[in-house]
Specification:
single chain; about 900 residues; alpha/beta; Rossmann fold; Heat Shock Protein 90; six-stranded parallel β-sheet; 24 strands; globular; disordered N terminus; EC 2.7.13.3; coiled coil
Length: about 900
């Protein structure tokens, strides 16, 4: 029995072999750390890693060694594609799944690939190089090991990318063999032979560091810019200014383990898992470094929690073994006593021996009693600890409830005045009304979340009151299902409603029960893929005493791991690619069904879908019957509206400034800088910088309305600042006033050629400067009006003839491609354009004089005018086709813009056409 109480060491469920070409360098280390992070969640998996130390022959031997050891799956990162291929093919042909990571073999005999697209990395580097050099300059390319797939792909992509920019030429190619020291002699010779080189593209960050050291020795670090690849250690090199940028090439360790586990568990998986790449430069490097630090911190917390869990399990096993030992001893004493009683009846001669034995047994029993007392004392301590834990939990829940109530008060105080302003202030501008509507919608969302949390607490303490009335459950459920018909249609999901009879009477509280079916249908739609089916069926039970409502989907199903916890509060299982919820929905739904003395159960088959069934009694006790009629329930689906965030530092605004116009002053002389700032602050918001590099960075972050810049500055001159501003489409629209003491005509011509809108020589007339600024801003406003006219109903497409028009054309194309999405946000649009949310907002505001949300709404309403002229489309179909969350929201927006409802507009134009 004691042997059965101890836990045998667990045998690994899966053995994964990993053949790594090398473990040197931060990128390879990060790959292995990513695998170990993912494996920390799967203690049943054993990973064996062998390091080939950049030797193809050794890697072949190690792969065959792993196969002989009996691995279940092979992960391989080849050093050279060709030589390693035979060993990998042997493993594959023996039935062992093969996952390639980062680099490929030359054969098609593999199960899956995880890694970046080296061709795309090269193309991205080429585009970024063209941006840095303004599409004209000379380049040196430092390649990795010849024959590796990474070297081949990155070189191919870089060459393909440069074909778009004929002004960029590769003067020399240097083989660095992935090591920073190996390239130095050849690169030194190449730079001496080609002094006109202005940029170096290195196939990894380590070689980029070596290139910087060469440039440092030659004294050309300021003239030659360096781009690297990998992005892990490269982030710090970018932050230190050693690299101008690095192309992120994700190690993919976590992705490789996830793919391997899906293969081993015979779950669906993708054969080609291509990891994306981004450019890391000064605009985003700090954010990425902070994110990496947070990931490391979170991993350490997870490891500490796992260590604590192991200690608790060991303590529990030890105590359990001791308790079983005591029970065995007690059983032994009972057996000995029975044997003594039987022996006394058989033989009087051994009475004395039995007496002695009984005395010994008394001692043993005394020891057992003492041990039992100790066990009882320990149990009492555990009960005290459990009671203390319950008390602490109750105190936390009370605090949680009180805090939720406290949140309701300020939310109500916010919502009340906003509602009053929206309903009783006809003089509000359209922008102010939209902003107030945004505040109202987000306040209502916060209030709804607080109400859900309070519902949870009410159920926990038994304070949720049910006022049930008798009604037709078929009608009640059908109205809820109808609210999901259009979203399901847009998602390509078929919605079926089946009932055994048109009328099925039951006692229920509609204000409570609607939350149950809304949650079940929302989850079904959330997890059902395109072309899937959701079936809602209703019928009485066999005994006729209850009604059964089932919601069945054809989604991914619920995993075995999640089934035991699916109705636990705040539990969030594996939800795949969909957005995670709060973990309250199903637990709240089950609690509300139980309040109706019903049941909520589920069944699921992985890969085939899930079915949630609500069973409600047809008759309820008197204590659940309502004393007054239940109030009707109203469902509101508002269009999601993003909240604008401000990036960068807060502008220092003088007391006199009331304008929203932002002017950036770039001047290295502190007294002149202060004078310009004070002069302009009387009319505008003003930010200032004391050097060209800082000024350009602030310009790309803040997107000001106008820039006043000095010409003679250390580091980056004013002319270079102007050239970079006009070459970057984020800032190409900004008017620039150049100030300088150089007043020669050819110098003024040089300033205008650089792209300056006005060239003023020192000393300048402050009044003339102020009036010039006003004139430039007025001209900019006229240009905005021109662009707005181009985006009218008659010209849906903007012809790209300059950077601003190209920006508008790209922005319009992205929005029009996503018009049907009800949840289209400013973040998605900005991400598609490759800029931040604040940069997008400031750019649109500067070019069009309006916000991004207004621009999206304007395009939708312009498209609506065209679609309303089609008599075959209903107004509801037009609303949903253009991404409005409801027909009422569409009608309100249309009337606000055109002073006509959609139906009035249609009648007016169709009648005139006939």
């Amino acid at each position: 029995m004691l042997a059965g109480c101890t836990q045998a060491p667990t045998t690994p469920a899966y053995r994964i072999g990993f053949s790594q070409c090398s473990t040197e360098g931060p990128w390879r280390i990060a790959m292995l750390e990513g695998m170990q992070r993912e494996l920390s969640f799967h203690p049943e998996v054993q990973l064996r890693m062998l390091d080939a130390k950049d030797n193809s022959e050794r890697q072949q031997q190690q792969i065959r060694e792993l196969v002989r050891e009996g691995i279940d799956l092979l992960i391989v990162s080849p050093y050279e594609s060709g030589p390693v291929t035979p060993a990998v093919e042997e493993a594959f042909e023996r039935g062992i799944p093969v996952v390639q990571i980062d680099r490929r073999i030359t054969s098609d005999k593999y199960t899956a690939f995880v890694g970046g697209n080296n061709v795309e990395v090269g193309q991205t580097a080429a585009r970024y190089a063209a941006q840095l050099l303004h599409q004209r300059g000379n380049v040196i390319e430092i390649k990795g090991t010849p024959g590796s797939s990474a070297t081949t792909g990155r070189h191919q992509g870089f060459v393909q990318g440069l074909r778009t920019y004929p002004g960029l030429k590769v003067l020399s190619e240097v083989t660095g063999d992935w090591r920073e020291d190996a390239l130095k002699p050849a690169l030194t010779a190449a730079l001496k032979a080609h002094p006109e080189v202005s940029l170096i593209f290195a196939h990894n960050d380590g070689m980029g560091l070596g290139a910087y050291e060469v440039c440092q020795q030659l004294g050309i670090t300021k003239r030659v810019q360096i781009i690297g690849v990998d992005g892990l250690g490269g982030k710090n090199l970018v932050h230190r200014g050693i690299l101008k940028a690095t192309m992120l090439y994700s190690p993919g360790g976590e992705d490789a383990i996830r793919t391997a586990l899906r293969i081993l568990r015979r779950e669906p998986f993708k054969r080609e898992n291509t990891l994306g790449t981004i450019v890391i430069d000064s605009t985003n490097v700090l954010t990425l470094i902070e994110q990496a630090d947070r990931v490391v911190s979170q991993q350490r917390d997870i490891e500490r929690q796992q260590s604590l869990l192991h200690d608790l399990e060991a303590t529990y096993a030890s105590q359990r073994t001791g308790l079983y030992g005591l029970l065995v001893s007690l059983l032994g004493s009972v057996v000995l006593g029975t044997m003594a009683w039987l022996s006394a009846r058989k033989n009087r001669q051994i009475n004395q021996q039995l007496a002695d034995q009984n005395a010994e047994n008394v001692k043993i029993n005394h020891q057992l009693v003492k041990q039992n007392e100790e066990i009882l004392s320990q149990r009492n301590q555990l009960e005290l600890l459990a009671e203390q834990a319950r008390t602490d939990t109750e105190a936390k829940l009370r605090f949680f409830t009180n805090f939720s109530h406290e949140l309701r008060t300020p939310l109500t105080l916010i919502l009340g005045p906003v509602e009053e302003l929206l309903s009783s202030s006809p003089d509000l501008t359209s922008t102010h009304r939209q902003d107030l509507a945004l505040v109202r919608r987000n306040t209502q969302r916060l209030l709804q979340l607080v109400n859900q949390l309070l519902d949870f607490r009410k159920i926990e303490v038994g304070k949720m009151t049910v006022r049930a009335t008798e009604g037709n459950l078929v009608t009640f459920v059908r109205e809820i299902v109808e609210a999901f018909e259009k979203p399901a249609q847009l998602q390509g999901v078929r919605l079926q409603f089946q009932t055994a009879a048109p009328v099925l009477l039951a006692w229920f509280d509609g204000n409570i029960l609607d939350k149950v079916f809304l949650n079940l249908l929302s989850n079904a739609l959330k997890f059902t893929p395109d072309q899937g089916t959701i079936t809602i069926s209703m019928q009485p039970t066999d005994d006729g005493k209850s009604l059964r409502v089932s919601v069945a989907d054809t989604g991914r199903g619920i995993s075995d791991q999640d089934r035991a916890h699916i109705f636990e509060w705040f539990y969030q299982g594996d939800q795949g690619a969909v957005a995670k919820g709060s973990g309250m929905g199903l637990a709240l739904a089950q609690g509300l069904v139980r309040l109706h003395q019903g049941q909520l159960v589920f069944s699921s088959q992985p890969g085939r879908g899930s079915t949630f069934t609500v069973t409600l009694p047809c008759q309820l006790p008197e204590n659940l019957r309502a004393t007054e009629p239940a109030l009707p329930v109203t469902f509101t689906l508002d269009e999601p509206e993003p909240i604008h965030a401000t990036l960068g530092s807060e502008p220092v605004v003088g007391l006199e400034a009331t304008s929203e116009t932002l002017v950036l002053v770039i001047e290295d002389n502190s007294e002149v800088n202060d004078f310009l700032t004070r002069k302009l602050r009387t009319e505008y918001r003003v930010e200032s910088a004391t050097d060209g590099h800082t000024g350009f960075r602030m310009a790309t972050d803040l997107i000001p309305d106008l820039i006043v810049c000095d010409v003679m500055m250390p580091g980056l001159s004013g002319l270079e600042v102007v050239a970079q501003l006009k070459g970057d489409w984020r800032t190409s629209h900004i008017p620039v006033v150049l100030l300088t003491a150089r007043n020669a005509p050819e110098q003024q011509v040089e300033g205008v050629q650089a792209g300056a809108d006005l060239y003023l020589t020192k000393p300048f007339n402050p009044t003339f400067l102020a009036e010039s600024v006003r004139t430039l801003l007025r001209n900019r406003e006229r240009q905005r009006e021109h662009y707005r006219r181009e985006l009218s109903i008659d010209t849906a497409t903007v012809v790209a003839t300059n950077p601003d028009q190209k920006f508008l054309a790209d922005l319009t194309a992205i929005v029009e491609a996503n018009l049907t999405k009800t949840d289209l946000t400013v973040e998605e649009v900005a991400r598609s354009l490759g800029i931040s949310r604040m940069q997008l907002y400031r750019k649109v505001k500067a070019v069009l004089g309006t916000g991004v949300t207004d621009f999206i709404l304007s395009l939708r309403l312009t498209k609506a005018r065209e679609m309303l002229l089609d008599e075959n489309l209903t107004i509801t179909e037009v609303a949903y086709e253009l991404g409005f969350s409801s027909p009422s929201y569409f009608s309100t927006s249309f009337r606000t813009r055109y002073q006509l409802s959609p139906s009035e507009f249609r009648v007016l134009h169709l009648s005139s056409a006939h």
